[in-house]
Amino acid sequence: MLAALCPLLLFSQEDFLKVEASVEPRRLSRGEEGAVVLELRLMEGISISPYPDFIIEFKPCPELVFPKNFFTASDLDIEVLEKDGEKYLDFKEPLKIPFTVSLEAKRGSYILEGRIKYFARSQKEGWCVKNTAKFFVTFATRPGLVKKKTAG
Fold it and tell me: What is the rounded average pLDDT of the residues 126-135?
């Protein structure tokens, strides 16, 4: 059993999944809608299992209001592909998670922290491991409110 795990100990588990995070737009006003954009890159030969769960969570950030506390692959409409009888998540497109800036947000720069819980697999080497990838992104808020467009 230990011999099967040894290859996993030779490199950092963080290397399975690299996360590049950004916020669109970078500067936000109170009441404005935006999105966290996550670009995911996998280590060569690694796939991410859709089961049991792929979950994205954010640390509480009073300046941003998300529609949910966590997001799954199905919440984000991540396509499930299959190759050689193995189902895996397709990360060709960036993931976009919507939010609204709190009406009480103060002007300033902030850091949003999050993590992705996932199961990495190597079909070639015959293993699967539960892991977490952490990420953070900076954003700034402006003092003004977003003006709602009126029909006219």
Answer: 92
Query: Rounded to an integer, what distance in angstroms lies between the CA atom of residue 78 and that of residue 96?
Result: 11
Which domain range does residue 48 map to? Answer: 12-140
Ramachandran quadrant class, 31 (left: phi over 0; alpha: psi -120 to 50; beta: rest): left
- Asked, for residue 81, whether it belongs to a domain, the answer is yes
70 lies in some domain: yes
Q: Whose CA is closest to 53, among 36, 76, 85, 83?
A: 76
Write the CB contacts of 128 (distance below 8 Å, at least 6 apart in sequence).
Answer: 49, 119, 120, 121, 122
Q: Let me know: does 63 contact 137? Beta carbons within 8 Å.
A: no
Number of domains in the chain: 1
- Indicate whether 5 belongs to any domain: no
Work out the number of other CB atoms within 10 angstroms of the CB of residue 46: 17
User: First vs last Cα of the chain: how many Å apart?
Assistant: 70
Q: Are 91 and 81 in contact (CB under 8 A)?
A: no
Task: Give pTM, 2 decimals.
Answer: 0.83
Mean pLDDT, to the nearest integer, of 121-146? 88
CATH code for position 22 = 2.60.40
Average pLDDT, stretch 37-63?
93
Which residue bears the tokens 């997001």?
A: 71
